[in-house]
Amino acid sequence: MRHLVRRVTAAAIAAAIALAPAAAAAQAKRGIGLIRDAEAEKLVRDYARPILQAAGLGGANIQIKIVNDGSFNAFVADQRHIFINAGTLIDTRTPNELIGVIAHETGHLAGNHLVRLREEIIRTQILSAIAMIGGVAASAAGGSGQGAVASVLGGQQIGTRSILAYARSEETTADRAAITYLDKTGQSGKGMLDTFERLADQQLFASAYGDPYMMSHPLAADRIAALQEVAQASKNYGRTDDPALQLRHDLVRAKFIAFTGSAQQTQRAYPDADGSLPAAYARAVLTFRYGDPKSAVAATEALIKADPKNPFFQELKGQILLETGTPKLAIEPLKKAVAMAPKEGLIRVMLGHAMVASEDERLLKEAVKELTKGIGDDPDQPIGYRQLAIAYARLGDNAMADLATAQGSFASGDVKAAKQYAERARANLKTGSPAWLRADDIVTYKNPIR
């Protein structure tokens, strides 16, 4: 599990979650911290695939990103990404509950709600401006200054309420679409209802003191009332999750609780009396974070013995060895993990990283091969480009080292640095070669006009 920070524009956040522009700008300035984890990402991809196909988005290359935030939330910020908080993975008890969340966000994408919400924001801003201008004009014609101020504030409040009302209607539409997608894929809507029931319990106190017209989402109790009859009428309502899928879900929850929570939180969730595999997984991660490396490796070896075909247990063992100063020992378990999960670019990049960090010059060419393949399968890995640059530099290929550095800077969003390194790489690469073309693409890149 690795952490990254990405920037999402203030406009995108505002349109996605109907925040005031100032709040959206503040969130964008902080950046959105992402968690990269091969096991969790594979799980949510497997959850999303049939839902996206049912929505007619199977070929749209929708990516799901996990946000490093412990609260329960999910949102879309453009037409290509669904963002799910780590807290949502932790709080959903079954695959069906998390699939319901994904189905809801897919409803927003399929309904083109983000574009429509932006259009509504523009329309409402115009109407609010007209209301404010009218109030000021009335004051100038003989009304009081206080009346003008009231008109301005009233126009702003009407605009805000209008946008939020529109957002609530889109949430309701996405809920209904989600139930349709679940039914089309032979899955139950019960997970959605269970999630809303938990949210309703949390909102019970807050709603007594809040204005329902100043909320971006309908109250959970209202959402239950709107969906319950339709969901329960489906022939799929009584279906339960496959036990193997439930175990995968439980393992990811255990990993996230142990990696993102405190030792006390993890111990409360998985007391010593819990002899399950997810509990053992959580304790292995906890030992890695707070204990000694030798005990952590022993804990992962016990996991591997319990399930030798699980690539993510091998990955965890390799990660522990790599990050505790024994990268050469990390190579063997990471090779096993790659053999079992050859399409997981994150694991392959970690293998290449271990080879570079081993300082064994004989492994550098193999490291370049693994890093190049890993980045090719999953380009959003700045650390992969950094390790590739180190490997090329140690092999004496400075032009390719500069290109890898440029690509890593570009992946991190540092376009200025990327262009500088790409120019240097392009000057020393064979004109027209694939590497030269990649460098040229970065040099000639122009930021999109917003």
From TrEMBL:
Which BP terms in the Gene Ontology apply to this protein? Answer: proteolysis involved in protein catabolic process
* Gene Ontology terms for molecular function: metal ion binding; metalloendopeptidase activity
The answer to whether the entry has keyword Plastid is no
The residues forming the signal peptide are 1-25
* Required cofactor names: Zn(2+)
Which PANTHER family does this chain map to?
A: METALLOENDOPEPTIDASE OMA1 (PTHR22726), METALLOENDOPEPTIDASE OMA1, MITOCHONDRIAL (PTHR22726:SF1)
Instruction: Outline the extent of the Peptidase M48 domain.
Output: 46-230
CDD domains listed in its UniProt record: M48C_Oma1-like (cd07324)
- Give a Gene Ontology cellular component term annotated to this protein: membrane
What protein am I looking at?
Putative Zn-dependent protease
* Keyword hit for 4Fe-4S: no
List keywords of the entry alphabetically.
Hydrolase, Metal-binding, Metalloprotease, Protease, Signal, Zinc
> SUPFAM superfamilies annotated for this entry?
TPR-like
